[in-house]
Specification:
Oligomer: single chain
Strand content: 15-25%
Strand order of the largest sheet: 2-3-1-4-5-6
Shape: globular
Number of strands: 10
Structural class: alpha/beta
Bound molecules: guanosine-5'-triphosphate, magnesium ion
Length: 310
């Protein structure tokens, strides 16, 4: 509840370094696995809208790719996406992790300096979110907050855990206070995200490829859904037939994704299918193939086809 004031609605960008928990937070706020999450940095490649309705406010939140010193066209595009989102929103939610380095010191780091400079340049109201509070004892929070406090004139500072949900309910009102007054919500109450089912399904496959192959496979995997056949879908479920291609850049990577006797691809398919069935509320028949396209991540045409570049 925001102080019994007028209704407020607007756009929020969730920003921060890779792996700080931006997508986990979006999912936690939505109560749905809309944005994929892995333990590896640079998971999110495009921006993803999620709509959260609170008492007296509506937040239209963009999850964005992690900001880092990018090399290569794919990563440069990802960082551009994150930074350009900043100019389209009313308020930023900048995430950092509750963690200390060697000797209990808190390293603020160049990327956070860069983000703060971008906020200053645009005079953007910003809330600092200190995530992963479940991982540290309470007394660590204070030095972390202190270290980041001088970086920018934060509108508010909120420690929370996107994983457990602790304190996440404080973020909505903290952000809503900085949104414009609005006669009506921006989105109808049943809108959860701007992502099509087809796009989320492709991401579920990529999530499993990244998670299951761990460090064996470098980042250059992309997933394209070729078939999304709903002819046997019913109101109470039914069956959806999905065919997807996992694109990699080399034959050696293809071998990793397929695994011994197809074991890796089978595992990826099973886990991804389970998530799909939960999302779609239907049985899913999933067919996965792996194909090689050399240097797709360096070609604009391929980035466009895969929905990474406009
Ligand atoms: N312990 C703990 N882990 C968390 C929390 N939030 C996120 N994580 C973990 O941190 C890792 C990265 O989470 P993501 O949500 O993918 O992070 P991200 O900021 O979206 O990362 P990019 O998309 O790569 O920029 C995953 O292993 C999450 O499970 C948290 O509150 N507590
Ligand atoms: Mg992410």
């Amino acid at each position: 509840m925001i102080d019994k004031g007028p209704f407020r609605a607007g756009f929020v960008a969730i920003l921060g370094r890779p792996n700080v928990g931006k997508s986990t937070l979006l999912n936690q706020l939505l109560g749905e696995h809309v944005a994929i999450v892995t333990a590896r940095p640079q998971t999110t490649r495009t921006r993803i809208l999620g709509v959260v309705n609170g008492e007296g406010y509506q937040l239209a939140l963009f999850d964005t790719p992690g900001i880092h010193k990018a090399k290569g066209p794919l990563n440069k595009r990802m960082v551009e996406t994150a930074l350009s989102t900043l100019s389209e929103v009313d308020v930023a939610l900048v995430l950092v992790e509750a963690a200390t380095g060697p000797g209990g010191k808190v390293e603020v780091g160049e990327t956070m300096q860069w983000i703060a400079a971008e906020l200053r340049r645009r005079r953007k109201p910003a809330v600092l979110g200190v995530n992963k509070m479940d991982r540290v004892p309470r007394e660590v929070l204070l030095p972390v907050i202190e270290a980041y406090r001088s970086l920018y004139d934060w509108a508010e500072v909120v420690p929370f855990s996107a994983l457990t949900g602790e304190n996440v309910d404080r973020l909505g009102p903290a952000l809503a206070r900085h949104l414009p007054v609005s006669d009506a919500p921006l989105f109808p109450p049943d809108v959860l995200t701007d992502q099509a089912e087809r796009a989320i399904v492709a991401e579920y496959v990529r999530e499993q490829v990244m998670q299951q192959t761990r460090d064996e496979l470098p980042y250059a995997a992309a997933v394209e859904v070729e078939e999304f056949d709903e002819s046997e879908r019913r109101d109470d479920g039914g069956l959806i037939r999905i065919g997807a291609v996992v694109w990699v850049e080399r034959e050696s990577q293809k071998a990793i994704v397929i695994g011994k006797g197809g074991s890796m691809l089978k595992r990826v398919g099973t886990r991804a299918r389970e998530r799909m069935e939960r999302l779609l509320g239907a049985k899913v028949f999933l067919r996965l193939t792996v194909k090689v396209e050399e240097r797709w991540s360096e070609r604009l045409e391929a980035l466009r086809r895969l929905g990474i570049a406009p």
